[in-house]
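Forum: Protein Structure Q&A
Topic: Joint prediction for protein chains with partners

I've read a bunch of threads here and the consensus seems to be that you should model interacting components together rather than docking separate models afterwards. I'd like to see that in practice. Below is the full input, 367 residues plus whatever partners are listed. Could one of the regulars post the assembled result?
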Amino acid sequence: MAIAGPRPRPGIEQIEAYVPGESKVPGGMKPAKLSSNETPLGPSPKAIAAFTAAAGELERYPDGQATALRTAIARRYGLDAARIVCGSGSDELLGLIARAYLGPGDEGLYTEHGFLVYRIAILTNGATPVIAPEKNLTADVDAILARVSERTRVVFLANPNNPTGTYLPVAEVRRLRAGLAPNVVLVLDAAYAEYVDRNDYEAGIELVATTPNTVMTRTFSKIHGLAALRIGWAYCPAAIADALNRIRGPFNLSAPAIAAGAAAMEDVTHADAAKAHNDTWLAWVTKEVRTLGLDVTPSVANFLLIHFPQGSAKTAAGADEYLKSQGVIVRKVGAYGFPNALRMTIGSQDDNERAVAALAGYMDGRA
Ligand SMILES: *Cc1c(COP(=O)(O)O)cnc(C)c1O
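Posted by a regular:
Agreed with the consensus. Here's the joint model:
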């Protein structure tokens, strides 16, 4: 009898690999790349300078504790640096949390239109994904709690969520935490927290400070414009920080990433400018796209979910093709349960105007 070849652990073959936003258009024209929620302002000049300076010592291992970065984050938000764990993007941290708390027989829960990295993290560890329905394209605390079982170990909540741009107010997040057993880790993925302008929103610092089982994850990929460097951070109860520090790679952040991240965190003026730009253009693009007769989910982040009419000849797939022919790249979101919608990142003035003009061209029938 032939010996079968290597097989990955159970669960891994069920994973559909993450498909990143596209970045190229035909004909080599410079695209308006509005597919990955990157900031049009780019990183802080101080972060670029710190990155460049780090090029002089590439033979040295980085500081395995990422001390300069954790210190800069702690100072900026008034946190305990010992409870901050940094990762190669928040994606790595989400995976580490799953690895520490989920195994075969356990359940990891996320919501209907939730970020797909959660599903990958759950299946990678042999655990079972459980999906809670949403209401009005927003996470629904009662529906999440109704799907919790004695096997549930981790609940992932993106707040605000990608790709919907909707959020849960702090009172609802507190109610969710209060309804979960003490042995369930609640992960608040606040990748877009810096963009949110709502009095009833809180990224998660308060819940992490007051409960022993809530983790908040954040990223430098969005408002700080450092997606290429892969930098994320988690604020954790001490015991969870300890677990993540035991299993992470000992040098999981590169020295240029640590240096650039610390400089970016200190440049509050640059982040404020990115927020101000987004406030202006999120409102403008929302209004212009609605004027074209398209439905836009109200967003508190740096992207919009644009819905095409049911049963019309004007479809998300058709618009995506036409936009690409005009040099505008947006994101298809069929994998998130939106076969007839597109997600558009708020870009530079020029890119926003190009995108709206191209959408208008498609809706006018110039396609
Ligand atoms: C972009 C994004 C992240 C950030 O990922 P990184 O690995 O830090 O680049 C995390 N969560 C959500 C919901 C996102 O959209």
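The chain has two domains: 20-42+269-363, 45-266.
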